[in-house]
UniProtKB/TrEMBL annotation:
It comes from Aegilops tauschii subsp. strangulata. Belongs to the IAA-amido conjugating enzyme family. Keywords: Ligase. It comes from the Eukaryota. Signal peptide: none annotated. One of its GO terms (cellular component) is cytoplasm. Residues 353-430 form the GH3 middle domain. This is Uncharacterized protein. The lineage of its organism: Eukaryota, Viridiplantae, Streptophyta, Embryophyta, Tracheophyta.
Amino acid sequence: MAAMNVSRAIGAALRSPASSPVAEAAAAAKAKDAEKLRFIDEMTCNVDSVQERVLAEILARNVDTEYLKNCGLDGAADRDAFRAKVPVVSYDALQPYIQRIVNGDRSPILSTHPVSEFLTSSGTSAGERKLMPTIKDELDRRQLLYSLLMPVMNLYLSGLDKGKGLYFLFVKSETKTPSGLTARPVLTSYYKSEQFKNRPYDPYHNYTSPTAAILCADAFQSMYAQMVCGLCQRHEVLRVGAVFASGLLRAIRFLQLNWKELAADIEAGALSPRVTDASVRECCNDDWAGIVRRIWPNTKYLDVIVTGAMAQYIGTLKYYSGDLPMACTMYASSECYFGLNLRPLCDPSEVSYTIMPNMGYFEFLPVDEATGAASCVDAGNLVDLARVEAGREYELVITTYAGLNRYRVGDVLRVTGFHNAAPQFQFVRRKNVLLSIESDKTDEAELQRAVERASALLRPHGASVAEYTSQACTKSIPGHYVIYWEL
């Protein structure tokens, strides 16, 4: 579907008059959507002024921190002083500061607001696990971005408030640092937050899974409970999802292995004295093509991230879902939540994200078109969010309320166009995810394309690639990579 102008949709969202309690509730939901769409429009029309305000807020609260003082900033710091004095850094430069916080130093090192916990990488990024300090009001910013997703989706699909979402959401293990602060993945932090646990009822965020099932630390029990709830409410499910494509495939695999026990428990359980619907027993045919549509027949789309490293699962998801649309709705990381996809039902190969300028201060390091490497890391090379050029590739650099200053996230993005004045970016690759042997450099996007071309040879034989990995082999000269396929 062609991109819809968000500003034009605001009027349409307010037109239906309320004439009954149900209509009033629907009108209230539309009015709430219109408010969120208006906010998106305002943010994307005034990118540079919003960015200037955000940086001013960050500097006002953090200019007296040890880190910014060491950079030579004082209480009168402004945008020009920030650009001139604060260096562009990677995690290694911040690690000594972070380690002091980990060990219990409560002085204003990176942020004047107390560090509430540490966020760890989700496991999809390259390199070792990093600890990112965060503060309490970051949860409000994340919650704000989540609140924008369904108003955008409602521009493309109607009736999503008339059913439920089957989302497989899980918490992961967490640890305590010597300072007593928790270290855990960003999504675990969100699911355990009061914002998530005590969220007000919203028909667009009505899940089949109870919060207790999501927060269950035992992965098997959590999956089992969420799957049972999803099966019992299967006619109410309008969308199926997980955070990453791999998570949704793990859920389908769980159903393959445990469907008999799940069906028996549902039939014998208190929820229903007897299950007579034959489609609950779809799995016994050993035909898993389109299983998502067959078990949850009202599903309108899959809500999963299938960009970057997750692109390898697109074919398998199409097989299991019966070619349901796949919506990549938002772009986020442990360091910061960035933005959303204003065309959520586009083809996965066309996904572009609009960075919301209120989430942090964003700068971009141009990537050399010939070498694929970022330009010389000089603060003068950085480009503001409002001044990137269409078609160019950049490495993302962020400054956050929590105290990351001109931090290189490591994501390489390509500018694909603009929504109002806001640039839209396609995720290209992680800058340090490379196959690099015998001086050749192959990034994950190139590897994915190579696997897709090669796997086409399997189609005449009724086989496909479910997953793959690689290993360097230097036993022969020249060295090469061996690609392992799971069929």
